[in-house]
Design a protein that fits this description.
Strand order of the largest sheet: 3-4-5-6-7-8-9
Radius of gyration: 22 Å
CATH architecture of the largest domain: Alpha-Beta Complex
Low-confidence stretches: 13-18
CATH topology of the largest domain: 2-enoyl-CoA Hydratase, Chain A, domain 1
CATH class of the largest domain: Alpha Beta
Shape: globular
Mean pLDDT: 92
Number of domains: 2
CATH superfamily of the largest domain: 2-enoyl-CoA Hydratase, Chain A, domain 1
Length: 283
């Protein structure tokens, strides 16, 4: 043993203090380290740069709906109809996603009210396989829309998705016309359909039910589009404008009606429900 090692072993070093990672949140936008409790109390919005973090259905329902809302049962669909496998089996990917999120699939519906105004609300979870749209998501959307028709209440959805689910092939793309028909049923029933665009909303979801609302609300800075920016630039061989496909750019160019901070979303929805469904009381 060298002299340096002998000396080092005799020095009474203090043990390292472990700091649980759950105490802090690193903002992906500004890299600020935010105390997690402060981040949660601020509705998962960075207090330094106002970056809106991604949140799942349970927190969305608690933020937007009055206490006492009811989760609607998830429709049963055939799993892995194509027996798909890439580096993993599709069934294994589903199992992992369910263990990580505690959800059956990427779209969950709840029936409740916002400040006494009845509403059926659907929320997509990007944490569940990128919020991708497969048969389960399509079936859940239709179930949510028909539950709204049955209750004579508006249907609203918070979108967050990378697009169609590749493991289901053409069957995932068939959910685009399927959800469009469900929206037509809402309109025939004279019921509003409201879309809240969260980060990110892309691909086949943008090309279908995310852009067919009576009112489109976006969270600040949300990425909203169909194809990715690099794909578009390589196709048209032009440099795209600054902020292209972000919520504020789309609002300024007429594709989004309003950009609303998360803290203002609940009262703004209540106001919209007053405009769109006047003189209706919560059941």
């Amino acid at each position: 043993m060298s002299w340096l090692n002998r000396v080092r072993n005799k020095i009474p070093f203090l043990p390292k203090r472990e700091t649980p990672e759950t105490l802090w949140h690193k903002c992906p936008e500004c890299d600020a380290m935010v105390f997690l409790k402060e981040y949660e109390e601020n509705l998962f919005v960075c207090p330094r740069c106002e970056h809106h973090g991604r949140i799942g259905p349970a927190r969305r329902f608690d933020m937007l709906l009055d206490p006492g809302y009811t989760l609607l049962p998830a429709p049963q669909v055939r799993e892995d109809p194509l027996k798909f496998r890439d580096s993993k089996r599709y069934t294994d990917r589903l199992k992992t996603a369910r263990q990580q999120t505690g959800e059956s699939d990427a779209l969950i519906n709840a029936s409740g009210a916002i400040e006494g105004r009845p509403l059926v609300l659907g929320v997509q979870d990007f944490a569940f396989m990128g919020g991708s749209m497969g048969m389960a998501v399509g079936a859940a959307f239709v179930a949510g829309a028909r539950a709204a028709i049955e209750r004579r209440s508006p249907y609203a959805i918070v979108t967050a998705a990378g697009g169609a689910r590749m493991q289901e092939g053409i069957l995932s793309l068939m959910q685009m016309p399927k959800t469009t028909v469900a929206i037509a049923e809402l309109k025939e029933a004279g019921l509003p359909y409201i879309v809240i665009l969260a980060d990110p909303t892309t691909g086949g979801v943008t090309a279908s039910y995310a852009m067919l609302g009576d009112v489109h609300i976006a969270e600040p800075g949300a990425l909203i589009g169909f194809a990715g920016q690099r794909v578009i630039e390589s196709t048209i061989r032009e440099k795209l404008p600054e902020g292209f496909q972000r919520a504020e750019y789309l609002r300024d160019h007429g594709m989004v009606d309003m950009v609303v901070h998360r803290r203002d979303l609940r009262p703004r929805l209540a106001l919209l429900l007053d405009y769109l469904t006047p003189h209706r009381e919560a059941a």
